[in-house]
Write a structure and sequence with these properties.
alpha/beta; Rossmann fold; 38% helix; SGNH_hydro; Iah1-like; SGNH hydrolase-type esterase domain-containing protein
């Protein structure tokens, strides 16, 4: 049987699907793969437009329980909620009520398939929302109003924090906070204590969210770099601090120490 590499799985919506894209010289998924090369495979299961109900329905179709020929899921990153938080409109049907969203997330992190793999599970808060920009684009695309609202989206991010706090086997990645803190720090004169958030029509200020969320929802290359900086410290404990850290935990040994066959036997494997 072929050697099986353990997996780092990115399970979510378009925010993970787009993590495979190369923008402005940076690719989130490639950055992770470069960090764990020869130790793990990074598997992208980002499904654009999906909410947690959709994700639950397809979970058994895209993930298998452990078994012969099935790679072990070692790390599981879950990023869902940006679509659940969409407001109900005649032109959009992605909304999942907050209570059901919480229940769905709990079902995902405790799903028997994932439980059988025993991965390290990371829950990621959906990012902030620039409702000012979202409104412009949604109305231009035929929606009667913005499909998402800043205050509602923030509630779904808080729900992720709450669920992570309730589950000691889950680690929180607070993408919302990291991006919003960056946006506030890079928006001169904006004081979040004095009123509504950046991107909220009541504040009327997009500020640096304009650079981090170009369409109001999806991440720019700069935002993905911030995201990667959050994830990076959680990967590599298996080999960090070892005597030969550079090559430790390789699935296949380094060529310098590999038990190679004698040259004539090695050539026979290619010559039949």
């Amino acid at each position: 049987m072929a050697v099986s590499y353990p997996q780092i799985v990115l399970f979510g919506d378009s925010l993970f699907q787009a993590a495979a894209d190369l923008n402005d010289g940076f690719c989130f998924q490639a950055a992770i793969q470069a960090q764990v090369v020869r130790r793990f495979d990074v598997i992208n299961r980002g499904l654009s437009g999906y909410n947690t109900s959709n994700a639950l329905s397809v979970l058994p179709k895209i993930f298998s329980p452990p078994g012969p020929g099935v790679p072990r899921i070692a790390y599981l990153f879950i990023l869902l909620g940006a679509n659940d938080a969409a407001v109900p409109l005649p032109t959009n049907h992605q909304h999942v009520p907050l209570d059901k969203y919480k229940a769905n997330l709990k079902r995902i992190i405790t799903h028997p398939i994932f439980a059988a793999h025993k991965p390290k599970i990371f829950l990621i808060t959906p990012p902030p929302l620039d409702q000012i920009r979202i409104t412009e684009l949604d109305k231009a695309n035929g929606h009667p109003a913005a499909t998402r609202q800043t205050k509602i989206s923030a509630q779904y991010s808080q729900a992720v924090r709450d669920i992570a706090a309730e589950n000691p086997n889950v680690t929180l990645i607070d993408l919302y906070k990291a991006l919003m803190d960056t946006a506030i720090a890079k928006t001169p004169g904006f004081d979040p204590k004095k009123g509504p958030a950046l991107g909220d029509p009541e504040s009327g200020v997009r500020g640096y969210l304009e650079r981090l969320l170009p369409d109001g929802l999806h991440l720019s290359a700069e935002a993905y770099r911030i995201f990667y900086d959050l994830v990076k410290p959680h990967l590599g404990s298996e080999w960090a601090g070892t005597r030969d850290e550079e090559r430790a935990a390789y699935v296949l040994p380094d060529w310098r120490v590999a038990p190679w066959l004698e040259e004539d036997e090695y050539l026979k494997t290619f010559n039949g």
